[in-house]
Amino acid sequence: MSRELMQQNILKAQAEIDAKKDIVKNGKMRQHYHFMAQTGWINDPNGLIYYKGKYHFFFQYNPYYGFWDYMHWGHAVSDDMLHWEYLPLALAPSETYDNHLRGGCFSGSAIEHDGKLFLMFTGTTNNGEGFEQTQCVAYSEDGIHFEKYEGNPVLTAPEGVPTDFFRDPKVWKHEDTYYMVCGASKNHKAQALLYRSKDMLHWEFFNVLAESRGEWGYMWECPDFYPLGDKYVLMFSPMGAGERTVVYLVGDFDYQTGKFDYHVTGEIDWGFDYYAPQSFEAPDGRRIIVGWANAWDWMPFWKDWGPTYREGWCGFYNIPREVRLMEDSTLQFVPIKEIETIRKSGWQQEQLLVSDEKQIVEAGNGISFEWKFKIDLEKTDAKQLKIVLRSGEGKQAVCILDFVESKMFVDRNDSDGWSKGVSESILYLQNKKELDIHILSDQSLLEIFSDQYSNNHSMNIYAGYGQNQTCIYACGGKAVLKDMEAYELMECYR
Ligand code: FRU
After folding, report:
1. 227 near 200, Cβ under 8 Å?
2. Which of 21, 149, 398, 489 could form a disulfide with 137 if both were Cys (CB 3.0 to 4.6 A apart)?
3. Nearest one of 248, 217, 398 to 323, comparing CA atoms
4. Who's near 114: CB < 8 A, 6+ residues apart?
5. Residue 300: HSE in the Cβ half-sphere, 13 Å Cα cutoff
6. Is 166 a pocket residue for ligand 1 (Cβ < 6 Å)?
7. What is the spatial distance between Cα 404 and Cα 380, in angstroms, rounded to a whole number?
8. Distances from the Cα of 155 to the Cα of 88, 107, 176, 433, angstroms
9. Quick check: CB of 221 below 6 Å from ligand 1?
């Protein structure tokens, strides 16, 4: 019976998508190569996995309209993480443990077990006792049609953890045991709880993997834990930690004791639109993360989810990024190399001298493009370099590299008449000969990577087609740029 109910709810949602997708497709703010859904609202990436020869992305999804509500799991597959085929929804609310109208099937992960594709997700209901979150399981023989486990939920909140702060299970396997990290809160401090299981159905508490002492907020959403080189990485999205919204910790992990000793901390992205990244391993061994390019209402810089709801949709993902471990155990987040396959026309230039006079740069069509260069710091005496993006119709977004203050800013206050705010990070320039910049621009997203992909800013802007100029100029001196290249990036959705 309950199996039928989920099926009915999936078919209902699917009919809604089919009725609207051809209209939504023409929305002016739709992306050209970043992942999005056919209609409605999306947030966190869920269940990312390479399975039976394809990349599978599941996603937090309300197919009915462009606001968060009543969470389903959407599903799409791809050969390159750029071109997508949408599959039927994987999960819809249907049970007493996941059918709260302002709840549903919350975030989780995927793993292959027993010849089947298993999903582990958070069921959210109110069952008369407040907002209750429990961990649940679903599985599929064909990787497309899922069935919820009859014994759900498989895990409830431990003592001391409020039932509305226990969510987002991320599962992995080590030797013959499954492990799972889950976001929680205890005494108003965030925790990542570690569990283990032999069969994906019976789970025992193992350890507190890491916890906030106040510096990283009161709740960690979407924690993820994975090996990288000879280290382990814990990533999480803290609530209540100001502008720190995607933190990573690097350290050593011991499977005997369940202890994680971390000695390096960092921020994956300093922009306002990068949240809840999830990782998975590509078939060639790359560790890839995908984040949701938006922000929640409880964040300090939040204004609104943006104007795309008027087009019947909201939400897209940042470009998938490969995580690399540096010698000092800090991390790099490099856009996937597959991006090179959608480069259209382009050019390279060895050197460019930049003064206080604005120079126009031919960066593709000025909207969907990639632009890379290095700043020769030894030959540069400017105080600042200003990179002007999506300029036109009296509007622009500006990335400022301030060599005196040693800071990087992305200012979107004049970018579209709607977006606001200036993101900010520290630039480590001491003893450096050059600073590398890599920009990815799409219809409503700018991603700017600097300093070997360790210092990154993702910012949404909702600029029109007329905002298609790219310029650069220096303040208080000259800047020497080298190894420049720029390309238009192809449309992946038509
Ligand atoms: C993070 C999050 C998760 C939750 C999901 C609900 O963005 O709040 O903690 O599972 O979104 O859609």
Report:
1. no
2. 149
3. 248
4. 200
5. 10
6. no
7. 12
8. 27, 15, 20, 53
9. yes
- Residue 398 one-letter amino acid: V
pLDDT band, residue 318 (cuts 50/70/90) = very high
Q: Are strands 40-51 and 313-314 parallel, antiparallel or unpaired?
A: parallel
Sign of CA dihedral 44, 61, 410, 323: positive
pLDDT digits (tens, 9 = 90+) for 181-238: 999 999 999 999 999 999 999 999 999 999 999 999 999 999 999 999 999 999 999 9
Compute, in angstroms, the gap from residue 94 CA to the centroid of ligand 1.
19
Task: Give the pairing type, strands 445-450 and 204-211.
Answer: unpaired
**483 an active-site residue?**
no
Cα-to-centroid distance, 98 and ligand 1 (Å)? 14
How many whole angstroms separate alpha carbon 327 and alpha carbon 321?
Answer: 19
Atom of ligand 1 nearest to the CA of 60: 12
Q: For 46-68, how does the pLDDT look when each residue is reduced to its tens digit (9 = 90+)?
A: 999 999 999 999 999 999 999 99
Q: How far is the CA of 151 from the centre of ligand 1 (A)?
A: 23
User: Does residue 74 contact residue 346 with C-beta atoms inside 8 Å?
Assistant: no
**And the tokens for 488?**
């238009």
Cβ–Cβ under 8 Å, residues 374 and 434 = yes
In this structure, the strands spanning 407-411 and 395-402 are antiparallel
| Phi–psi pair at 143, nearest 5 degrees | 80, 5
What are the tokens at 450?
Answer: 């600097």
Asked if 334 and 453 count as a contact pair (C-beta separation under 8 A), the reply is yes
Q: How far is the CA of 45 from the centre of ligand 1 (A)?
A: 10
CA 442, CA 458: separation in Å to the nearest integer?
Answer: 11
- Which uninterrupted H or E stretch holds 242? none
Residue 402 and residue 383 in contact, taking contact as beta carbons nearer than 8 Å: yes
* Total count of residues recorded for the chain: 494
- Report how far apart the first and last C-alpha atoms of the chain are (Å, whole number): 39
Distance CA 396, CA 255 (A): 51
What are the phi and psi torsion angles at 456 (to 5°)? -125, 150
Number of helical (H) and strand (E) elements in the chain, helices listed first: 1, 33
Kindly state if the Cβ of 107 falls inside 6 Å of ligand 1: yes
Structure tokens at 9: 């709810």
For tokens 């069935």, the residue is 147
d(Cα 212, Cα 219) in Å, to the nearest integer? 8
In the set 44, 269, 411, 442, the catalytic residue is 44
Ligand 1 atom 9, closest CA: 221
Is residue 130 within 8 Å of residue 147, measured between CB atoms? no
Which of 211, 332, 344, 217 is closest to 269 using CA atoms?
332
What's the predicted TM-score (pTM) here?
0.97
Smallest CA-to-CA distance from 170 within 78, 235, 239 is with 235
Residue pair 178/168 in contact (Cβ under 8 Å)? The answer is no
